Amino acid sequence: MSATKPSLSAALAAAVLASAPVAHAHKMWMQPSKTVLSVGQWITVDAAASTDPFVRDHRPLGLESLTITAPDGAVLAPANPATGELRSSFDLRLDQPGTYKLAMVRDGISASWDDAGKRGRWPPRGQPFSADGLAKVLPPTATDLKVVRMLSRLETFVTAGSPTATVFDEPAEGLAMQPVSAVNDLYADEPAQLRFVIDGQPAAGLVVEVIADGIRYRDAVEAMELETDAQGRIEIAWPRPGFYWLNVGTEDRQGSAEAPYRRLSYTAVLEVLSP
Amino acid sequence: MKDFRFLSMALGLAMTAPGVSAAELALSIELPRIDVAEYHRPYVAAWIEREDRSVAAQLSVWYQLDRPAPSGAAPRGESGTKWLPDLRQWWRRGGRDLAMPVDGLSSATRPVGTHVLRFDAGSRPLAGLEDGRYRLVVEAAREEGGREQLPIAFDWPPAAGQTLDARGRSELGAVQLQLTP
User: Fold this and answer.
1) Residue B72: which domain range?
2) Rounded to an integer, what distance in angstroms lies between the CA atom of residue A47 and that of residue B51?
3) What is the DSSP secondary structure assignment for residue A273, as one 8-state letter?
4) A-chain residue closest to B95, CA distance
5) CA distance linking residue A141 with residue A156, whole number of Å
6) Which residues constitute the signal peptide according to the record (chain B) (predicted)?
7) Residue A100 confidence (pLDDT) above 60
8) Between B31 and B73, where is the model more confident?
9) How many structural domains is chain B composed of?
10) Is B9 part of any domain?
C-alpha cells in the first residue's frame, strides 16, 4: 500500500485505467446446481462468460485454471469436465463434510504501448509474457510503455453438512474475500457481511458490484454498489433469494520490477436461500 | 410393610432428584390430505429454539429411511438423506450437524392424519431445558410440493396447563402444543 503517497498512487492507478481497454466486457461466472447439501451428494457446475451473469449466451470458461479445494485442504479433480459452445461444466461429489472452494485464478502479464498514435499490445491472449519476448516485438519508436500484471480470482462455494472456513485459511495473493457470514449460510431475511483483502490486508474504499440472477426476466440489471469500509467489509441486504454475482476490482503499484502495475479482480458467486 | 417401604423410597427419589419435574409437552401435528396426482409423504421436523434462534432441543424428524435392498438386488439409487436440506430451517438449525439416522429422533415419513408426540421434562430431549421463553418450530417439505414452517412461542416450564394452536396453510394442518405442569 502506498499509504505515504496517496495522490501519486491514485494518479498512477488512473493512468493504468485510462490506458486499458474495457476490462471485462463480459462477466465471468461459475454456477453450482446447489450450494447447500448433505454429505455424499453430487453437484454439477456451469462456467461461462456472458454480458449478464448466469445467462448462457456467449462463451465457455476454460477449465484448465480450475482448482477445487476440499474442506480438509485436498485438491480434487472435477468429474466429467466438458466444454461446450456456450458454457463449460463439471461435476463433483461432496464426500467430505464442510465447505468446498471452486476457484479459477488467472494470472498473466500484458504490455501495451503507443507507437505513433497506435496502441500496441503483447502478448496475444493465452500466450505467456516474457521480457525477452517483449523486447523482440516492441517497436523502437514506442512510447508510454505499460506492463501490467493481471490477477483475477473467480470463486464459488458449496457445503455438505455444516459450513467450515478452512478453505479461506490459505493466504491469497491479490484481491480475495474473507467471509464474516458463512458463504453457504445466506438467507434473504438476514444481511450478510463479507470482507475483502488485498494481499491479506483490508481492502478499504473499493466498490463491490452485486447482481442478482434473473436479469433476463426484469427490465433493469438492478446492480447494487457497496463500498468497503476501513476493515474492507460490506454488508449486503439481499433483495430476494437466488444466485448472486459479486465483483470488485482495483489497480495498484505492488507489482514486480518486470510488471510494476497490478490489475486485481475478485468475483464470487453466492446462493441465498429463502428463510 | 414391605410395599410401604418401597413406595416411600420411590417417592423420596422422585422428590429429591434434582431438576426433575413431571411436566409434559405433547405435540400434535396434522398432515393434511393434499389432492394431487403424485403425492409423496412430507419430510417433517420439529425442534425447540431459544429466543436467539439457537436450538435448545431436537424433537423429531420424519424422512424417507433407506430400505435395505432385497437380497441379491442392487442397492437403491438415492438415499433419503439427500432431501434433508429441503427442510431448510431445520437443516441450518442443527439438522446438518446430525449423522442420520438418530436414535429416538428420526423415523420414517408418516401418512396423512394427526400424529401425537409426547415428551417428559425429565428425559431427553427435554431434560436440561432451562427455564425460559422458547419457540417450537414445525417444518414440513414435500417432494413435488411446497414447504411450510409454523412457530409456536411458549414458556418453560409451564406454570399451568396450556394448549397453544397454530394452523398451516399448505403443507401443515393443525399443530397443537399441549403443556402440562
Assistant:
1) 21-180
2) 41
3) B
4) A161
5) 45
6) 1-22
7) yes
8) B31
9) 1
10) no
Q: Once rounded to an integer, what is the mean pLDDT over residues A30-40?
A: 97
- Which chain B residues are Cβ-neighbours of A273 within 8 angstroms? 88
ipTM of the complex: 0.81
Which pLDDT value is given to residue A244? 98
Is B14 a domain residue? Answer: no
Q: Which amino acid is at A116?
A: A
| Beta bridge partner(s), residue A40 | none
Report the percentage of chain A scoring pLDDT > 90.
85
Instruction: Give the Cα separation of A179 and A183 in Å (integer).
Output: 6
Alpha helices per DSSP H over A139-237 = none
Burial of A211 (0-12, 13-18, 19+ CB in 10 A): buried
Residue B27 lies in a domain: yes
> Residue B66: its pLDDT value, please?
81
Contact A185 B97 (CB under 8 A): no
* The C-alpha cell that represents B144 in the structure block: 413435488
Q: How many CA atoms lie within 13 A of A226 on its CB side?
A: 24
Go through A22-56 and write b for each residue having 16 or more CB atoms within 10 A of its CB, e for each that does not.
Answer: eeeeebbbbbbebbbbbbebebebbbbbbebbbbe
Segment B112-136, tens digit of pLDDT:
999 999 999 989 999 989 999 999 9
Per DSSP, what are the bridge partners of residue A42?
Answer: A93
Q: Mean pLDDT for chain A?
A: 91
Instruction: Give, for A270, the enclosing helix (H) or strand (E).
Output: strand A261-272
Number of H helices, E strands in chain A: 2, 19
The whole-angstrom separation of Cα B48 and Cα B157 is 13
Where do the domains of chain A lie? 6-272
Q: What is the pLDDT of residues A55-66, one digit of tens each?
A: 999 999 999 999
- Give the pairing type, strands A207-212 and A242-252: antiparallel
Task: Select from A38, A40, A185 the Cβ nearest to the Cβ of B92.
Answer: A185
Residues 6+ apart with CB under 8 A from A14: none
- CA–CA distance, A176 with A197 (Å, rounded to integer): 5
CATH of the domain at B108: 2.60.40
Contact A40 B79 (CB under 8 A): yes
Determine, for residues B81 and A38 on separate chains, whether the beta-carbon distance falls below 8 Å. yes
- Residues across chain B: 181
pLDDT of A148 reads 95
Query: How many angstroms away from the CA of B82 is the closest CA of chain A?
Result: 6
* pLDDT more than 70, % of chain A: 91
pLDDT value, residue B20:
53
pLDDT in tens, A131-173: 899 999 999 999 999 999 999 999 999 999 999 999 999 889 9
Please indicate whether, in this complex, the C-beta atoms of A38 and B92 are within 8 angstroms of each other. no
Q: What angle do CA B173, B175, B179 make, to 5 degrees?
A: 165
